[in-house]
Amino acid sequence: MILTVTPNASIDKTYAVDDFGVDRMHRPSKTTTTPGGKGINVLRVFRELGGTGLATGFVGGRVGDAIQAGLTGEGIGHDLVRVAEESRLCIKIVDPKSGTQTEINEIGQRVSAQEVEALMAKIGLLLSGVDYVVLCGNVPPGVPLSFYGDIIGLAKSKGIRTVLDTSEEQLKNAIKAGPYMVKPNVA
To answer: What does pTM read for this prediction?
Structure first.
């Protein structure tokens, strides 16, 4: 059983556009819309491989509603914290001819200290029966630098292994807490 933490969940809208180029009008040949964020994607693949898990993180507004409805529709377990601001939308434009992908990812909603505390409390409750906690992606504005490190410390205190997949300052800070495994990006 894994618990994935995706503090910056999104709706990922992907457009397939042959011969994509800037400063031109395009009509996609295919469009897909799915709940996204690294932790959600990890859980989706883990389930396909026969594992069980639960997703948590922040969601807000109509995009947050769409994230929750999409997860429910896919049969992906979730227990998310509602926040005041709107969750993010991420646009991906895939050009099947050239094999390129262009992404436009919103930064994410600002979360308050109280909303961060609510997610930390929820994570504390959700750790029962979990073998691994997978911490994924960037964090939205308002989330403290200690966020992932604090979760790693909490999980370790209960004998639960953590996997960390983030970048920049969150990565540098959280490594100090001693996660079981780290998956940095090439950059």
So the answer is: 0.93
